[in-house]
Amino acid sequence: MTNPSYLMRAYARQPVSFTRGSGARLWDQQGVEYLDAIAGVAVTSLGHANTEIAQVIAEQASTLLHTSNVFRIDWQEQLGERLCALTGMEKAFFCNSGAEANEAALKLARLYGHRKQVAQPQILVMENAFHGRTIATLTATDNPAKQQGFEPLLPGFLRVPFNDIDAVRRVAEQSPDIVAVLIEPVQGEGGIRVADAAYLQALRTLCDQQGWLLMLDEIQCGMGRTGAWFAHQHTGIVPDVMTVAKALGNGFPIGACLARGEVADLLSPGQHGTTFGGNPLACRVGCTVLDIMARDDLPKRAATLGDRLLSGLRDALSGHPEVVTIRGLGLMVGIELNRDCKELVGRALNEQHLLITVTRNSTIRLLPALICDDAQIDDIVARVAALLSPEAPTYPGTAALAEHMEPTT
Ligand SMILES: *Cc1c(COP(=O)(O)O)cnc(C)c1O
């Protein structure tokens, strides 16, 4: 048994360690099987231990891992072209994570502002937003618990309520220095909140009128998860800047900031960069993820499975006294309870052998892999219903769960 006390306590970890996975299933050190309804928080959309991804990683690792962005990288050029073809964007910058992708977007917005002679460019962000943990993306995030202790946060951000176009119009009148809007089409950490199509369309129009960049954070809701390749494609709008990460590598770290129009050509050599970002291995994995998603029509599959999950939950939990709403789009589903329910994460593991997360203290969040079969979706519904039922049948708990229990915060 290894020792967790050598790790900084950045997480309130569950006392379980998984040693292998397959598709939507995981096994712990005792060989106990679990059903994964979060896919590493919207990352392993093609399932754990995907054999095609594993093979490509092995092949590329024994061919060429890394050179440098000093040189051309064919896999990076290919992935850039393919992401642009899927989105209507024109150019890509590759990095290693979601936060880094958003950092690139925020830097582009400031460059764009300075290009327009705005000395103190402001970026409009949303209430309930999550954009990452670097200082700039933490500033863009709306979560006092995550921000506290890290002040001073950065200037240059204005916040408005999510899904409220009048609030944006009001701020626009008072703030001539706004240059961009950054928004998640479906807020993930914010509790699975879906922006209305009419709102995003009105935001697009307002951005055009004001000369603002519309920057979409599709890090969690992109890559097929909501039933379209990217969530904004349900609405017909096209952003100026879009960020992607999480499922793009199916667990291999990669992020991308995509842009079109004037902003796609803003960066000149030396203004931004990364050592690891866009290396041949990461980009080849990204290309393979796109291949598999296209071949197996996984965005469409996510729509079908998402409907099944949502209607299954609504049936199973109808009239439940604690359930306030069940909402979602595709395979992003939130079940909001009328109480704090963070303890359900541990109880789901122990009692139902089910991986879930809880966001904003009171919303159960489900983000299953896009390769789940119907029976696994039904199984998720059954286990969530059992978890929330007072006389739930429980799966036998695992012996090791009590060991190395870390204090939860
Ligand atoms: C996860 C996430 C991020 C941050 O990505 P990291 O890879 O953890 O840096 C940013 N925005 C959204 C919407 C996310 O879900």
Keywords for this entry:
409 residues; alpha/beta; Aspartate Aminotransferase, domain 1; Aspartate Aminotransferase, domain 2; 7-stranded mixed beta sheet; 12 helices; 18% strand; globular; binds pyridoxal-5'-phosphate; Acetylornithine aminotransferase; pyridoxal phosphate
Descriptive account of the structure:
By secondary structure, this protein is an alpha/beta fold. The protein has 2 domains: 16-43 and 296-386, Alpha-Beta Complex (Aspartate Aminotransferase, domain 1), CATH 3.90.1150; 50-294, Aspartate Aminotransferase, domain 2. The protein contains 12 helices and 17 strands. The protein has helices spanning 39-42, 51-61, 74-87, 98-115, 135-140, 144-147, 165-174, 197-210, 280-295, 298-316, 344-352, 374-387; strands at 18-22, 25-28, 33-36, 91-95, 122-126, 157-160, 178-183, 186-187, 193-194, 213-217, 241-244, 255-259, 323-329, 332-337, 354-355, 357-359, 363-366. The strands form 4 sheets. Strands 4-12-11-10-7-5-6 form a 7-stranded mixed β-sheet, with helices on both faces. Strands 1-2-3-15 form a 4-stranded mixed β-sheet. A 4-stranded antiparallel β-sheet has the order 13-14-17-16, with helices on one face. Helix 11 (344-352) packs across helix 12. Pyridoxal-5'-phosphate binds next to helix 4. Residues 97-99, 102, 130-132, 184, 188-189, 217, 219-220, 245-246 line the site of pyridoxal-5'-phosphate (PLP).
CATH level 1 name of the largest domain: Alpha Beta
* Portion in strands: 15-25%
Main-sheet strand order equals 4-12-11-10-7-5-6
Average pLDDT, all residues = 95
